[in-house]
Amino acid sequence: LVRPHGKPHAVVVLLHGLSQYTGEQLKQWQIHLAEQGDDVIFPRYEQPAGDPLARLTIAVSVEQALDALGRPKVPLVLLGHSRGGRLAVEAATELHPQLVIAIFPGLLNASFELPTNLALIPKTTRIYLYSGDRDTVVGTSGVQQLLRRLHAGGRSARVGVIHSRPGYAATHDSVYRTNAAARAALWAPVDKLIASAR
Question: What region, left, alpha or beta, does residue 105 occupy, with left being phi > 0 and alpha being psi -120 to 50 degrees?
Fold first, then answer.
């Protein structure tokens, strides 16, 4: 848990991708979100190889963290990268957030993971799916797969692209960049979405 100074404006659950470091390289983003006035929950839900029960682990961990935070009466936001981006959408079926943001979401391995009924996501939950214009790991495949699954469940999402700019290439691992160009290209639009949920 990373806490802001004073009362939080929102609770942001930041979900890492599949990494041997369990996303510890996202520490600066956690601090940034707290500096914006949000409680941050960072569940370390798995290490390679992927856990087929990851969605359930995330849901239970977030509920425990919300208890530890005193269940503040503020919006809940799920924000994830890669596998964590896809799992953020899936975990919305149980956590019922106001907002889900999936950054460069990974693909589902249906032979390995539990099925998720995306029709259980509340109609009031806004969902944003972003690909990176230089992502050669998943490209737009993760976004397109999630869109098909959401549409099959009667849900929709807004789709966008994170664009490269001088000093920042929107590759799959560019979420770990913390320079000014990365903050402007990636953090700033996410900040605006989170602010819109408050």
Answer: beta
